[in-house]
Amino acid sequence: MAETKPDQSSEQDDECSCWEVDWKSPELAWHIKEVHPLLLKHEAKVTGGRVNLRVLVPLCGITVDLLWFANRGHSVVGIEYDAKGCQAFFELNDIAFETEPLSDEYKVFKGKNKDITLFQCDFFKFPSLVPSMKSSFDVIWDRAALRTTVSEPEGSDAKAYLSVLRQLVAPTGKLALENTRFNLQDCTSPHYPGIVSDEMVEKLGKEEWNVSKIDQIEFEKGDGVEPFYRQFKHNIALHFLTPK
């Protein structure tokens, strides 16, 4: 196990420079610099007012929600495919960490003074890579993860994604699902996030989950929490999914 501390050096090789642009740039279109407002607003409902919960944040990137959960007294696990993203999270938050192999191709990043563990791996392989974590998470916080899997009209990737989460959630746990939606006709770019409507959440979750809508907040053009969406009028919805 190799201990690593945040690198304060200004000298970086080409690979690290590329990573700086990808993960430390203040212009990341999907990154929210503050804790998500719906998470703050509904903390009591998300956690049930409890501490010492095991919390999973899938496709976590460098979200500050990881640190927020840990600071609130929870044991936090993130799943992120890019090792540079895992490293960037700890360095951006000045958290010393250590790494160990998860498999021949994947690694685990563990905070030294924060109860945060990031698994660098293929999300869909996680249950087989770490079978001890099946049915173990009290809370799963999905912030913008599900919508990245909505690539086909039938939502087959999204169904597979939710099925993995169903394997990981505790019998009495919950999935807190955030989705941002906008009018696709307002977008001229060929590259845009998936849009997950209330109806799609119900359809995708009906076989394995009980679905309830908790809240929805509206934003006018120029406003909002996620940089990409500020160019549109949009809304953010929060659903709770509990295992059937």
Automatic annotation (TrEMBL):
Family, similarity comment: Belongs to the class I-like SAM-binding methyltransferase superfamily. TPMT family.
Main location as per UniProt: cytoplasm
GO molecular function, one term: thiopurine S-methyltransferase activity
PANTHER family the UniProt entry points to: THIOPURINE S-METHYLTRANSFERASE
Xref: Pfam families: TPMT
Organism of this sequence: Actinia tenebrosa
UniProt record, GO biological process: methylation
Keyword Lyase applies: no
Keywords: Cytoplasm, Methyltransferase, S-adenosyl-L-methionine, Transferase
Subcellular locations according to the entry: Cytoplasm
Gene: LOC116308911
InterPro entries: SAM-dependent_MTases_sf, TPMT
Keyword Methyltransferase: yes
Name this protein carries in UniProt: thiopurine S-methyltransferase
UniProt EC number: 2.1.1.67
UniProt GO cellular component terms: cytoplasm
Reactions catalysed according to its record: S-adenosyl-L-methionine + a thiopurine = S-adenosyl-L-homocysteine + a thiopurine S-methylether
